[in-house]
Amino acid sequence: MEHVRTFIQYMKPYKREMLIGIFALLVTDLVGMVIPWLLKQVIDLLPNDPAQSQLIGFAGWLFLAAGVQAVARYGWRRYLFGPSRKMEIDILNHLFAHFLTLDRTFFQKHEVGDLMSRATNDLRAVKDFLGLGLLVVLDAVVVIIGCLALMIYINPKLTLYALLPLPFISILFFTFIRAISIRHQSIQENLSRITSMVQENLAGIRVLHAFVQEQNEINRFDRLNRDHIDQNMSLAKMFGLFTPSLVFVIGVAAMITLWIGGKEVIDGTITLGSFVAFNGYLMMLSWPMMAIGYVINLWQKGVTAMRRIQHILDSRTALVQSEKEEGAFDIRGRIEVRRLAFSYPDSEVNALDGIDLKIEAGTSVAFIGMIGAGKSTLMQLLPRVFDAPQGSLLLDGTPISEVPAFVLRRHIGYVEQEPFLFSTTIRNNIALARPEASEEEIEAMVHCVHLTPDLERFPKGLDTVVGERGVSVSGGQKQRIALARALIRKPRILILDDAFSSLDVETESIILNNIRSVIEGTTTLIVTHRLSLARQVDRVVVLGEGKVLEDGVHAELMQKQDGVYRRIYSNQALAREMEILLK
């Protein structure tokens, strides 16, 4: 019930509609109970040779009851099923919005396919439970109470005999309920694995083709699907025993009623009309009894799905949330690092170990070092992808944890080595950071990142759709589109995390010359393995094993005889000379 209460809040906006639906359902059930009673009156009247007008009157009442029931049935279908679909949309919107508040740590622990399954398959199960499941429960309660009351009114003794087999339903219920819950949990989890595999394979389709692994993945997918079928068949077999058992119990009750009730009609204890009405109400009871199995299915499936969705809704970002207003900050771009030590979640090794740096606003700094030196880690701490220890990272003199993440990121432009492009046009990808950007601003950014020659080869130019994750453009084109997306925001801090790795040296030089005017006054942090860039920045920081090994301008670092920077620079210069000679 704890999980159910969480979702009850989504019913409140549709309370009026649901009350109308419940009223219509009550009318449907109550009118349905009137019909056997009218038949009782007619049958008891027949031996008295009733007038034709009396029979026509009863026929009219039956027709009216059927008409009212039809209208009321339409009412509860509209006003109970309708809100359940609206609730599904509300929960999905809330879930999606919550996804966007979670940090990278959460998504590192959960597969995308599993999250998609929870947002689709599990949510559909919740909708069925909140809509159809609650409807069936309410319908069953009304019908059971109403029919039992009328049956007792007609003949209490016969009602007692008819109800003798019904305790077996409780035994069946408690026998099957736990096993059904376990099977539903297993089915939902296996469905998540299937969704995850499909998403992963589609995302990595080029790798599968490159390594000729299509058949292996087809076989693995087939095994997952067969497991899913086996689990569903196991559940179906259980309901194959449960539902017929219910029908059998109801059949036994009907048999007892026919045997004992028939004798009482012969003995004149009850009238034939009362006996027909009694059996009519008993048959009406058969639906709620059989619906128990259906409700159990919806209940267990819905609660299992609720539990899985609630796990996401209960998750919270690990980032410290600042409550300060946006107007309290005037981001200039001055960065200070004080004895920064940082390790990733679930890791005992420090990725950064005691770093001290001061970067003035508007300056440009190149960060170099071997793989695993901590360059990208430091860059990710600035936009609070992960949180640095309190007081170890400051922006304009303010601890970065006290700056709301949305304020901070609004002033940071970040370009990664492998940027993500959305499956839309080049224009929309560039304008993502500033949807209000004019056509002239977009074209200026295209020219700035030297993308104009590439667009001239595309028939649709800026309206070219880049495909899933930018599959239809090259790595260098993706990096330049991402760079244009970051620059159009006009950020106070620009982070280029090996953002030119897919570009040739000539194109890189052209872009750097073009963007100088755009990033003037912007604090620019460049992670690079190409030391030719180091001669064009204000300062170079050399990292190694999470520590600052060297810090200074290019000329100063080159004067250190045994310096790390000088050794790397000399090796790269020699490599370039060898390439020229080989050509």
From TrEMBL:
**GO molecular function terms listed in the Swiss-Prot or TrEMBL record:** ABC-type oligopeptide transporter activity; ATP binding; ATP hydrolysis activity
Keywords (alphabetical) are: ATP-binding, Cell membrane, Membrane, Nucleotide-binding, Transmembrane, Transmembrane helix, Transport
List the record's Gene Ontology CC terms alphabetically: plasma membrane
Describe the location of the ABC transmembrane type-1 domain by residue ranges. Answer: 19-301
Record-annotated ABC transporter domain positions = 335-570
Compartments it resides in: Cell membrane
What is its membrane topology? Multi-pass membrane protein
Provide the transmembrane region boundaries: 20-38, 58-76, 129-154, 160-180, 239-260, 280-299
Which coarse location class describes where this protein primarily resides?
A: membrane
Q: Name one Pfam family in it.
A: ABC_membrane
SUPFAM superfamilies noted in UniProt = ABC transporter transmembrane region, P-loop containing nucleoside triphosphate hydrolases
* Protein name listed in UniProt: ABC transporter, ATPase subunit
